[in-house]
């Protein structure tokens, strides 16, 4: 049984709020990154008090209100499904604050991305328009990226958050790369969490996590709403024909910078014409 994959659950937190994923350093081999996926029915309110952690509240689907102190962000969110392939709105909230998320639409799905933080930063809306958009790769490694909290956005202390779309028949996070050696400026040490979604939702993708010496080498079949955690190692994703893949990545580590190292055995793939 792998300790890297978390199957979707349905845990009622209170009427109108269901927890689908709750990955922390208590149940996963992680020190820095955390993720919660919640589903809310209209008017249901999720409240949380942060301790020494910061959060990025991502309006995954549906519309929500987010309140922290005097900050009110109303009716945020841009899509009914992540597969609309449109960037969405998010809110950054720093450590030691209390905040509320309320569903405005019949249902809403929200990802809460966590990382350690001790320096207060302003609560801030990261609007859909603030996302930077990239198309990466060629041949069968094409993917489409929405950068929600990239390293050049100084709104967070530790958190890096990104959404990645991979069409059926393609690979992403490929050629395989790792970011687990604290060896700046060439490689940074970052844990990573993948929240996977698949369209249509009965589909699956393959996610391998492995190190050079293969002391860690796990290949997982991953279904809709499953989470994979990557405490270390290379971590490519393969998407079967007929299904589209979406994942949201949370990355965090001692230094907020993403410097990765490609597996030298497979780096040639980047240099094909
Ligand atoms: O470009 C991609 O395929 C996405 C990945 O880089 C993903 O965000 C990741 O693995 C980050 O380390």
TrEMBL record:
Gene Ontology biological process terms from the UniProt entry: inositol catabolic process
Pathway in which this enzyme or protein is active: Polyol metabolism; myo-inositol degradation into acetyl-CoA; acetyl-CoA from myo-inositol: step 4/7
InterPro entries (UniProt xref): Deoxy-glucuronate_isom_IolB, IolB_Bacilli, KduI/IolB_isomerase, RmlC-like_jellyroll, RmlC_Cupin_sf
Keywords: Isomerase
GO molecular function, one term: glucuronate isomerase activity
Its EC number(s): 5.3.1.30
Catalytic reaction(s) noted: 5-deoxy-D-glucuronate = 5-dehydro-2-deoxy-D-gluconate
Stored SUPFAM superfamilies: RmlC-like cupins (SSF51182)
EC class: isomerase
Domain of life of the native organism: Bacteria
Sequence similarity: Belongs to the isomerase IolB family.
Role description: Involved in the isomerization of 5-deoxy-glucuronate (5DG) to 5-dehydro-2-deoxy-D-gluconate (DKG or 2-deoxy-5-keto-D-gluconate).
Protein known as: 5-deoxy-glucuronate isomerase
């Amino acid at each position: 049984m792998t300790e890297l994959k978390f199957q979707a659950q349905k845990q009622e937190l209170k009427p109108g709020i269901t927890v689908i994923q709750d990955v922390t350093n208590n149940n996963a081999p992680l020190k820095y990154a955390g993720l919660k996926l919640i589903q809310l029915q209209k008017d249901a309110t999720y409240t949380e008090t942060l301790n020494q952690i910061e959060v990025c509240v991502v309006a995954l689907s549906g519309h929500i209100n987010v309140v922290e102190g005097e900050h009110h962000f109303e009716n945020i969110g841009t899509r009914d499904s992540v597969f609309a392939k449109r960037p969405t709105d998010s809110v950054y909230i720093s450590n030691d604050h209390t905040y509320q998320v309320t569903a405005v639409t019949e249902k809403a799905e929200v990802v809460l991305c966590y990382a350690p933080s001790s320096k207060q930063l302003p609560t801030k809306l990261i609007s859909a328009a603030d996302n930077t958009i990239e198309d990466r790769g060629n041949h069968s490694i094409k993917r489409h990226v929405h950068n929600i909290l990239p390293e050049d956005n100084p709104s967070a202390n530790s958190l890096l958050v990104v959404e990645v779309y991979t069409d059926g028949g393609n690979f992403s996070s490929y050629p395989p790369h790792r970011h687990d050696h604290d060896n700046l400026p060439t490689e940074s040490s970052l844990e990573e969490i993948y929240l996977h979604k698949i369209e249509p939702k009965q589909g699956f993708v393959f996610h391998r996590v492995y190190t050079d010496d293969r002391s860690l080498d796990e290949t997982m079949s991953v279904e809709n709403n499953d989470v994979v955690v990557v405490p270390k190692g290379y971590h490519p994703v393969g998407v079967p024909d007929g299904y589209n893949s979406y994942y949201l990545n949370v990355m965090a580590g001692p230094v907020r910078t993403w410097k990765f190292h490609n597996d030298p055995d497979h780096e040639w793939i980047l240099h094909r014409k």
